[in-house]
Amino acid sequence: MRFVDIIEKKRDGHALTKEEIAFFIEGYTNGEIPDYQASALLMAIYFEDMTDEERANLTMAMVASGDQINLAAIDGIKVDKHSTGGVGDTTTLPLAAMVAAVGVPVAKMSGRGLGHTGGTIDKLEAIEGFHVELSTEDFTKQVNEIKMAVIGQSGNLTPADKKIYALRDVTGTVSSIPLIASSIMSKKIASGADAIVLDVKTGDGAFMKTVEDAERLAHAMVKIGNSVGRNTMAIISDMSQPLGFAIGNALEIKEAVETLQGKGPADLQELCYVLGSQMVVLGGHAKTLAEARTQLEAVVADGSALEVLRAFITAQGGNAAVVDDLTLLPQAKFVTELAAKTSGYVAKLEADDIGTAAMLLGAGRATKESEIDLAVGLVLNKKVGDYVNAGESLVTIYANREDITDVEQKLYDHIILSGETVAAPKLIHSIITE
After folding, report:
1. Predicted TM-score of the model (pTM)
2. Residue 277 CB: number of other CB atoms within 10 A?
3. Active site residue 168
4. The architecture CATH gives domain 331-418
5. Is pLDDT of 367 > 90?
6. I want to staple 353 with a disulfide (CB 3.0 to 4.6 A). Which of 82, 225, 414, 432 is the partner?
């Protein structure tokens, strides 16, 4: 088999066979196929797309390129959740604790963040003593006992995806639906989940800016998952403004705890219930979404979801007292209120730029080598549609440097007020199951 023939075949709009795709993935991963030839195929895929069968074969070839996690020793149907990312996306912790409290095992592998704020792993490290490294035996034992564990991703999970992603980044092929879908789904499938719930974001702070593009990606991923034996569904949720109020690692842990106390932001709480209901149904603990939601609301109301969070923190070496005393989280030296210059309705909270403002404080990484400051970040005091009086606080800024003029200006530039009433954006745009 000659790789140039595979490039020409895709260039001319023909579907590649399972064997041809496997030849590409294996050859590129082990260094036999050079970057320039791989780049040519990626560009051909970008322009010519892939069939559903090709997408599934590409995904499984990437899964086979590295380690695959076997969760068979964990009782029950293991359900994973994946978000395509956004600003203030704090769902993993409260959601996992709620779902675990209902009895569905959540065995989660998460990554570190690159961009606005840290990933779930970074956020968890805001809790004193918490560690994300567990042996396979301890990971399995913990999920069987308390139904929840979150660890760092395996170093050799889908190495083909890591190489291809780096190449896509420098060849203008990042925004290709089959390449995005296979990248995400290969990691989820290699992580061993039986069922997968996808939270596909759309709007200013999301990779997919329009609902139509988000739905195209969601359909692609759901088809891949279902075609390879993983029960998969997706929710299209809004990221035109940050989710919840908090943007920053310790601040988001605080918000997660408050959500499990039933005192979280309305949009974050609702998204957890919507995603969680799907997870509970897929996990076999409810027949209908309404029944699942009732169970989730009950474990928040009676405190059992919060108890799961305490047990989870303790099991992974963290100080669970933080659940009852949020001042034990890292604290910023300077707290400043960003006052509205005029009165009006909040028309836009431009998520991407507000996330960048948090990163300027040190809440996120500009590069992989950047150090995160776990204490800093932003807390929104108004959301889109709210009225604000001149002089009233729009955002509370938590900083470890005194001069935050650059952050304040960034926020003023991207929080837009209007004299006209503005409707709050729709949180859930659609649900995709096939």
Report:
1. 0.93
2. 26
3. yes
4. Alpha-Beta Complex (3.90)
5. no
6. 414
